[in-house]
Amino acid sequence: MTDTGVSIGLSRDEMAQRAALDIPDGSYVNLGIGIPERVASYIPEGREVIYGDPELINAGKRQVTTVPGAAFFHHADSFAMIRGGHIDLCVLGALQVASNGDLANWSTGAPDAIPAVGGAMDLVAGVKTIYVITQHCTRRGDPKLVERCTYPLTGQAVADRIYTDLAVIDVTPDGFQLVELSPGVDYDYVAERTAAKLLPIATDK
Amino acid sequence: MTDTGVSIGLSRDEMAQRAALDIPDGSYVNLGIGIPERVASYIPEGREVIYGDPELINAGKRQVTTVPGAAFFHHADSFAMIRGGHIDLCVLGALQVASNGDLANWSTGAPDAIPAVGGAMDLVAGVKTIYVITQHCTRRGDPKLVERCTYPLTGQAVADRIYTDLAVIDVTPDGFQLVELSPGVDYDYVAERTAAKLLPIATDK
Amino acid sequence: MIDKSIATPEAAVTDIFDGATVLIGGFGEAGSPIELIHALIDQGASGLTVVNNNTGSGEVGLAALIKAGRVAKMICSYPRTANSTVFPELYSSGRIELELVPQGTLAERIRAGGAGVPAFYTATSVGTPLEEGKERRTFDGRHYVLEHGLTGDFALIKCQAADTHGNLVYNKTARNFSPVMAMAAETTIAQASQVLAPGQLDPESVVTPGIFVDRVVAVTHPAYESELVAQGMSYP
Amino acid sequence: MIDKSIATPEAAVTDIFDGATVLIGGFGEAGSPIELIHALIDQGASGLTVVNNNTGSGEVGLAALIKAGRVAKMICSYPRTANSTVFPELYSSGRIELELVPQGTLAERIRAGGAGVPAFYTATSVGTPLEEGKERRTFDGRHYVLEHGLTGDFALIKCQAADTHGNLVYNKTARNFSPVMAMAAETTIAQASQVLAPGQLDPESVVTPGIFVDRVVAVTHPAYESELVAQGMSYP
Fold this sequence. Notes:
The complex is a heterotetramer, with 2 copies of chain A and 2 copies of chain C. Chain A contains 6 helices and 11 strands. By secondary structure, chain A is of the alpha/beta class. Chain A has a single domain, classed as 3-Layer(aba) Sandwich (Glutaconate Coenzyme A-transferase), CATH 3.40.1080.10. Chain A has an 8-stranded mixed β-sheet with strand order 2-1-3-6-8-9-10-11. A 3-stranded mixed β-sheet of chain A has the order 5-4-7, with no helix packed on it. The radius of gyration of chain A is 17 Å and the shape is globular. By secondary structure, chain C is an alpha/beta fold. Chain C has a single domain (5-102, 111-120, 150-229), classed as 3-Layer(aba) Sandwich (Glutaconate Coenzyme A-transferase). In chain C, 23% of the residues lie in helices and 28% in strands. Chain C contains 7 helices and 12 strands. Chain C has helices spanning 9-12, 34-43, 61-67, 86-92, 103-115, 178-184, 225-230, and strands at 5-6, 21-24, 48-51, 71-76, 97-100, 119-122, 136-139, 142-148, 152-163, 168-169, 185-196, 215-218. In chain C, the strands form 2 sheets. In chain C, strands 1, 2, 3, 4, 5, 9, 10, 11 and 12 form a 9-stranded mixed β-sheet that branches. Classes of the chains: A alpha/beta, C alpha/beta. Chains in contact: A-C, A-D, B-C, B-D, C-D. The A-D interface holds A 54, 57-59, 61, 66, 72-76, 78-80, 82-83, 102, 107, 112, 114-122, 125-126, 152-156 and D 27-30, 53-54, 77-82, 87-88, 91-92, 98, 100-105, 107-108, 110-111, 122-130, 170, 172-173, 175-180, 207, 226.
C-alpha cells in the first residue's frame, strides 16, 4: 500500500487539536516530544491543565516560561510523579500500536541504531491514561496500528486511545474500536490502512 | 552482684565528655536520647561537628536553635542520610552489648511492654561507626556487657566502642578489648562486672 | 481554574470512609494537623488504619482520635512518648492493633508507595525480631530484608503555606513525614497557616509540588498539641 | 572549622582515578558542570564509567570527555541528542560500552544508591527488551522488575549557590539529577556560581544538604554548552 499523495484526513496540528478536546479540566498531563507537545496549544479556553515534563522543558532545549503556581523538583521526584501514578494523562507518539494496547515508540530495532529510551517506558508504566498521537501509516504507507508490534516494545497493553490523521480509535478488550472518523474519511478507508481488526462505530453496525 | 553504693567511676556527664574527645573534627554525628545527647556539650573547642538527629530536635521536644549552615529536609531524606551511610558516627545508649558487637537498646522483651523502636535500627544499620554510652551495669547490678544479648536485638555486630562509667572498651574480632580505665578503677573491677571475656590493655599484659 | 482550597477542615474531610488508611503527618507534635484530626473525630469515620510516627499525647489530636475508638490499627515506630497514655491502655487490653516499623523504614516505605515502588530491600532490622516474617536476601555479601511500599487512602498534613494549586512549604522540622505522605495518599488534605494565590510561593522553594496535594484548607492559628495538653484539654 | 571550598576546578578533581565511576549531573546542557568536566579532561583519568542522562553535544563538556577516549562505559537513558555525534561514532565502532536505562529507573537507581537501598522493584520496562536479564516478580497481580541501586566514586554537579558547609541550591530545571547524584557518590564535587558563608542560604530552601557534598568550587560565570557548540569550540 502506498500513499496517494492526496491530502486526506487531519494535519498534524488538527490531530493535536482533536486530542486536546479530550483532556479534562484540572488534569496533570505529560506531553511527549513531536506532535504530542503541540497539544498544549489547543487546550480549550477555560480549562486549566498542568504539564509536567522534564523532556519538554529541558531536552527540547526550548525556553519555557514558568506559570504562576509552578514548582521545581529533582529528577527522582519528577519520576516519582510519573511512576507513582500521579500523572493523569500522557500523550505520546508511536512507531507501532497493537490492538492489545502494546506500544512501540523508542526503537525500530535496526541493528546499527543507537538505542535511546528516555522516559517513555516510565510514562507508559506509571501514567493512568495513555493517549497516542500518530500518523495512521508510515511515510512508506505501512500501517502503524497492527495486530502485534514487531518493533521493541515500550510497554505492554498500555495505550488507551489513538488519535491519527484518519480517526480516533480506542483500544478495548476486543481490540481497536473506531470512535470517530476524520472529515472525508470512511470506515473502509481506515480499515484498509489498519493491520488489525477494526470494530466499526456502534451506530455504523 | 550488687552495687556497693560507693561512687566509683565516671558520672554520666563525664562519660559524655570522654566520648566527645573521640569525635573527629568535621564529622556528621547522630546522638541518641539520654546520655548520648550530652555529648554535644563536650565537643572540644575548635572542632566543628554537624549533628543530624530528628529525634533530638523533635521527639525530645526541646527548643533547638539552627546554626548557620543548617538545612531542613523531610524524613525520607533524613533517613537516606542515615541508611545511605552518610553519617560518620552515632552515639547510642544500650540495654545490653555483646562481645560480638550485637546491640540491644529498644526493648527488654517483657511481655506487657509496649514495643517502640524509633530510629535505632536504622542508625545501627546505616551509620559507619557506632559508639555506645552506657552504665557498665544495670541498677540491679547486672552486667550490660555480655557474651550474647538476651534482650531483642537492635542490630547484629554493630557496636564499635563502648564508653561506660568504668572503662572504654572496643569491640574487636576477639571480643571486648579494654582500652582505658576510669580513674580509681582497675582491670579486675571491670572484668568482674563484665559478663564476657575482657581482653586487658596491651601494656597490662 | 484549578483551585484546591476548601473553606473548613470539616468540609475537607467529609469523604474519609470507615476502614480507610489515613497517613497523618507529624513527628510528635511538630507538624501534627490537629484541626484536621479534630474534624475527622467530628466526622465519625471508624475502623481506621492510621500511619504516624507516634500515637499522640494527652487526649487531643491523634490521641483523641484513638481514644474515641476510631483507630483499629496503628502503623508507627514509637507508640510510647511523654504524655502518651491513650494508646498504651488500648493496646494492653488488646483493643488496637500495632504494626511496629523502624522509623527510617517507615519513611522509606511511604516514599516508595508514593513513587510506584512496590517493594525494596533495606539492611534495617536484619537479625532483629522485626525481621520476622520478612524475606531476607543478600546483595554483595550483606543481608537485607524486603519491605513493601505503603500507601494511604488519605493523608492529613500540616504546612506553613500553600497556594491554591496545592504547592506547599513547611515550617522547620515540622516538615518531617508530610512530603512523603502527600506523595503516598490517594487524596492528600493539607492545612496551612496561609493559603496563597498561585505565584506567591517561590518555585525554587516549594517542597511539595501541587500534583501531590488535593485539598488545602486555611487554619490561620493552628493549635499546638503540648499547649492543649498542658491546658488539660480533652477533645471533643 | 568546616570549609569545603576548593580554589579551582583543577584542584577539586585531582583524585579522580582511572576506572572510577563518575556521576555527572545535567539533563542535556541544563545543569552540566562543564568546567569540572574540562578539569577532568586536563587531569587525565581514563577508563571511566560515566552516568549521565545523555552523552553531551558537540565537542565540549561530556562529549569532549568521551571524544578524548576517557570513558569506557556510559550509563544513560538517551545517548542520541541534537549535535551528539561523538558517542554514536565510538559506539558504532565498538569503542565504548552502553548500559541503557529508562530515565526514571536511572533517577530512582541513583537515589536508591544514595539512600542505602541495594535493590527495588519497578513496573518500568516490564515486557520490553530492557527487562532482559532482570528478575521479574509479581506484587498484587502486577509485574515488576528488580533494579539495583547505583552509586559512584565521584559526582560532578553544577549548582547556583553553595555555602562552605556544602549546602546547595540550584537554578530552575538545572536541578534535575544533581541532588540524587550528590547522595549517591562517595565524593561529591559541586561547582557553584556563588560560594557563600554558612547562614547565607535559607535553611528552608536548601535542596541538597551539606552532608551529601564534599567539595564546592566557585565558577562565577559558567559556560553554556550550546553557546560553546555554536561557537564551534572543541575542548581542549
